[in-house]
Amino acid sequence: MQNKTKEHVSVFLNELVSLLPVIKDSWYIDATLGSGGHTQEILSQGGKVVAFDWDDAAINRAKTQFSSELNGKRLFLVHEPFSKLKEAVKFLQNQGIPSLFSGVIFDFGTSTEQLMSEERGFSFRGSGVLDMRMDVRLAVMAKDIIAAVPAKQLAQLFRDFGGELEADRIAKAIKSSPEPIETTKQLADLVISVKHKKAGSLHPATKVFQALRIAVNSELTEIQLALPQALSLLLPGSKLLCASFHEGEDRLAKHYFQIWEEQGKGTRLSKKPMMPSDDEIISNPRSRSAKLRGFIKK
Predict the structure, then answer these.
(1) Angle value at C-alpha 290, between 289 and 293, nearest 5 degrees
(2) How do residues 136-151 score in pLDDT, each as one tens digit?
(3) Which domains does the chain have, with CATH numbers?
């Protein structure tokens, strides 16, 4: 993800794919297709991929981007959240997809296309509807959460999912607003009015927007549901790799990998996560919070 551009750059691209590693004609799961960077790299090295994304914009882009691979049945696209890994794989087995895979990768980060999309409500720049749904089939938008959740619980949400230090003041300001907060500009302006200044290089509303996005999409619950499924879909000796961008995401990966190791299901690649290189942070500033963990199935 590069700064000042709408073009997404996959974080840990080389690390994730080289750690698998890719074996020609073997099948892999890219549980978070996004802009297709990891899928592209696996395919270019001779692997085959089942790629998941619950964002129909990502699926539609991939249909054009990977038309030849789709026609050649080297790639299958699944328009579902990764909590449905096993269900989707079972459904695809009548099309020659195996029941076990040579690797599974997760990139929990939100794509640049999503973050910069004003009309989808992810961006605090512009003035779109406060939506934030990764999957438009979901019923609840961010504006619905703001309207329905009491101030105390809203503040807790901002703290737990965003690490927002001024959560109480922001939540009270939202609930005392004379008009409903229904657009990204309304929310961003309100947060700025409460905080008065930028926190370092971050926009003042960054953490609040992150917290709402995580809540709208039940992102941490999705991870909890998906990781055990991913392990069950791995061939022995194969790896499950997770790139995280939020403390809650990394905490879940760390927890599951540690428990599985204690249960004798395999081994962690390392006890501490891999961090992005200085060069990657310079070329791709949004990678600064990224962490990479891996697990090898016994």
Answers:
(1) 140
(2) 899 999 999 999 999 9
(3) 13-113+219-297 (3.40.50.150), 139-216 (1.10.150.170)
